[in-house]
Amino acid sequence: MLRKTYDRTIQLADHPHALWWLAVVAFLESSVFPIPPDLLMIPMILARPQRAWLIAGVALVASVLGGLLGYAIGALAYDSIGQPILAAMGKADAMAEFNTRFNDFGFWAVLTAGVTPFPYKVITIMSGWTGMPLATFVATSILARALRFFVVAGLLRAFGAPVREFIEKRLGLVFTLFILLLIGGFATVKYL
C-alpha cells in the first residue's frame, strides 16, 4: 500500500495542477492544517528536478501568506479561532506565561519553527496573539521558509537521482522517519 501511495504521489507531482495544490497545502499548513507541504514538494521535485526553484518559490510564497492568516487569527480572532486550535494541540494553559516571554525571543521562535518540523502554525498564531511586530514576523517568516524550502529543493536538485533511489529502496524506513519527525514536532508543541 505504501508503494502504491508513493507511486501515485510521484505521478500526481507531475500533474498540471500540482503547483496549485502545493500552494493550497503550504498556505493552510501555516495557519490551520497539520500536514506539511514537504509531502507534496519533495515528490514534485523528484519528479521534475528542473522545476525545483519554482516549486520551492511557490511553497515559500504560499507559506508566508498562510503565515499572515495565522498571524491574523492570533491578532484578531484568538479567542474564537486561535485558542481552540492551540488548545487542541495542548497549549492553552501555557499561553499566558508564554505570552510574556514570546516577543523577547520572537525572531528566534519564528525562525526555528519555520525551518524545523515544529508546527509553524503555532508560531504564526502566537505571533499575532502576542503582538509581535508584523515587519519582524514577515521578514523572519520569509527567511525561515526560504531556508527550509530552498535548501530542500537544492539538495533534491543536486542529488535527486540518488535521493530518489534511496527513498524508493528504503520507502518503509523513510516513511517511518518522516512519521517520527512529525510526531516529534507535535510532542515538542505539547511539552513546551
From TrEMBL:
Ranges annotated as spanning the membrane: 20-40, 52-73, 134-159, 171-189
Start and end residues of each VTT domain: 52-155
Transmembrane as UniProt keyword: yes
Superkingdom of this protein's organism: Bacteria
Keyword line: Membrane, Transmembrane, Transmembrane helix
Protein name: YqaA family protein
Organism encoding this protein: Sedimentitalea todarodis
Species classification: Bacteria, Pseudomonadati, Pseudomonadota, Alphaproteobacteria, Rhodobacterales
